[in-house]
Structures are given as C-alpha cells and as structure tokens.
Amino acid sequence: MASFLLKSEGETPFSTHPGLLKLHSASTASRLYDPSPAIQNHMKLIPHTFTALLLGTALAGAATTSVNTGSLGAAANGTNSDGVTLSANSPLAAPGDLSGSYGGGSTATPVNTTIPYNAAVNPSAASPFTIEFWVNPNQDTNNGWAPVFNRVSASPRSGWTFFQRGSAGGGWNLALYNGDGSSVGKQITGGGSAFAVGAWTHVAGVWDGADLSLYINGVNSGSASSGTGYNASTSAVLSVGSYANGDNSFLGGLVDETAFYGQALTAAQILGHYNAASSTTAGTYSGLVQADGALVYLQNLAPVPEPAATSLAALGLLAAANRRRRS
To answer: Which of 155, 191, 231, 280 shows a CA-CA span of 20 to 30 A to 13?
Structure first.
C-alpha cells in the first residue's frame, strides 16, 4: 500500500506544489487536502511506506468497481457486491496494490465481483485462452469454493470455473463444461502440495484448443488431453469470489490480479508473471500482464476521500509539529 509522510519545512518536497497533499502512484495523483496559506509554507510531502491512517482514512475499504485495465476497457469493469472489501494484503511487492476480500454471503446476497457477459471472454472451443489470478484462502477445505467462475450452472452446462480442493483434494481445480447435462468435458487439478492458508498462490489455466494445462506458482502442474470437449458459454457472467448467481461456493479469502487472455500464454510468460510479483518497482507486474495481451485485468483502486473527510487528528499533529518547530 502506498502512503506518505508529512514533513515540516526544510525537507526535500516530493510534490511540486507545497501544501497540497497528494496520493501518488505510478501514473496517478489524487488530491486529498488543500490547506490554507497559513500552513502551506510549513508543509512538504515525501513518499514513505506507512499506514494511511495518519491521514485519518485507510486506503483499504469498500469500493464498488474493480477497474479493467485490459484491452476490453470499461466494458469489462467488475462490479463489487456489498460485502466485498479491499485489503492491503497483496501478492505484489510493489506498493499501491489492493486485493479483494471475499467471504460469507448467501444465494440471495452473494459476495462477489461480476463482469457482464462478453463474447470475447467466452471464445469458441477451438480458440485458445488463459485465465490467471492470485488467491489467498483462509481455510484448507475441499468444499468447491469458486475463486473465479464463468459457467452456466443450469443444465446443459457450458463455460468454465475454478474450484478450491484444498491440500487433501489436490489444490485447485479447473473444469471446462461440454454442454452435456452437468458433465465436465475436461478438468485438471494441481497445487495440493503448495496449498497454504494465509499465503498467496499464483494460478493460471491454459486452454490451447485441444488440451488443458494448469500452472501453480509458475510451474506446470499437468495437462488434460482426454475428455469430451468444451462448449463456450453464450450467457455466463464472469464472477470473482463465488458463483455469479450466489449458488453457494463462496470463497473465503482474498483474490487479486484476475486476468483473462484470448490466447494461450506460454510457460515462460506465466513464470515471468509469477516472478514479476516480487519486484518492488510499481508497474512491473501490471506492465507484463498488459503487454501479454490481457483482455480483462481487474485492478482494485482505493476510494479517494473528499477533503472534508481528512482527519482533524492528522491536522492537529501538523499544527503541533509546527508549534514545536517555532518554539
């Protein structure tokens, strides 16, 4: 999480506008508070890594939209339901990233992030594609939780979905449906030995038009060539955190960096994404995802508070520091 430390006059300013508190990331700056001229001369801003609670507001919290920075643009933005919150616990080492926190919910009120049906995210069975995400579960259970879902559940089923199987059930499962009742056309499970509660796991599923492969933490966990095929959905809503219709399978934990590609990523590309997460340079991971052609790449943006929401306590700290400096 990116945040900032206020310093009194004499420090090297990060902002070129003394007195204007700004939240800076690699490509954006959002105004938080513009103080009166009486204190502007004694306020400077330098980047620092510490909690944004100094400003009286956490960057993590509720948000209604997961922004798609993939090539489909706003048409594939994700809508967060009530109950989805943003967490500073992220798989990326670079500052400024927030993950989506899921859990609970019911059939009537699912806790998830949904993207309306888009044909580009449901290519024909002969067309390759890749689904990629990071997941951090809060329980080791084989209960069929669905971290990412894109299936028509009513018979005949079509589309695809991921399931949590836990360490005992083999880790993570990707199933493709063939339009024959509730039958699974192809599926693969892997990552059981790497399954860990409270830890981030990178998951990528690749369909090349014939075979299905699963990668866990950048490593190929196996391929499925047998089966009865795959039928693309013509109506499925892509959902993160649970089934789109809230029909159980509510993931408990965190999901981040969900991406969909209209091609089969190579093993080298997937390993490159996994390794890029450890970079402390902002934009390293997202730059790779976008350069590799993601159609959908959901990124969580922190809600920016209005000036009136700025903490009076933080301003009091500034005033006290200024008085001490003058005395």
So the answer is: 280
